[in-house]
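Work Package 3 (structural annotation) set out to generate three-dimensional models for the target panel prioritized at the project kickoff. During this period the team completed the workflow that converts sequence records into discrete structure tokens, so that structures can be stored uniformly alongside our sequence database. As a representative example, we reproduce one entry of 246 residues exactly as it appears in the project archive.
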Amino acid sequence: MYRVDYFAGVINTLVMIFVNIAIWKAIYEADDNLGGVQLKVVMTYIALAFLMQCIFVMEDYFIESKVTSGLISSDLLKPISFRAYVFSYNVGSSVFRVLMQLLPTLVISIFLFKLLPPFSTEMGILFFFSAVLGYLVLYCLNFIVWMSSFWFYYTFSLVTIKDALVMVLSGALIPLWFLPQWLFNFVKLTPFESIFFTPISIYLGQVPAADIKTAIIKQVAWIVVLALAGHLLWNAAKHKLVLQGG
């Protein structure tokens, strides 16, 4: 069962990359340069976005299942931090996906879709660092949504809305270059840009060298803001759990 799930995950990622690249090839059929962006750049962007998504997967209903089953009461009695436990659980899953799903999918994608290399060695290193920050931004955003399970019995609707916003506004599905200018300006004011668009733009050399430091500082700032919001919600949630009698 686990072997089938593993191979299905690898095949699913490759199929999603292939389908989306095919769509963009059809869009670019009449012109190899759309909005000042070449097709090979977009193809690499799409492939990297889906490769990152395969390791940015998190267990959205982990905390909800603990709350609805009542098991969280025993977790809170253990001499460990529950938030650190949830974080390590998701990070462990992501590390597994990096080793067992991302690496083979990346190798196949490089030969199958002819991905562009990093704009430079420095950009490649900064991309890795920025991708880690993007993961943390997404985790902190997810944690805030997960905390709603202390007030709502089911969080499926909230998780669905969050996933839709992340897919569209983070650049996971469509490069933000192609959004209307007013919408692009709005996205810059949100944490979504920092999840996928910023790391991939750095990889492709689309962020001027002088602006990379600002982009990374922006990612760190969103991590701090969202982590603080999550901390406040967690403190409120613990009191809510006590009022409910565990």
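The CA atoms of residues 31 and 235 lie 54 Å apart.
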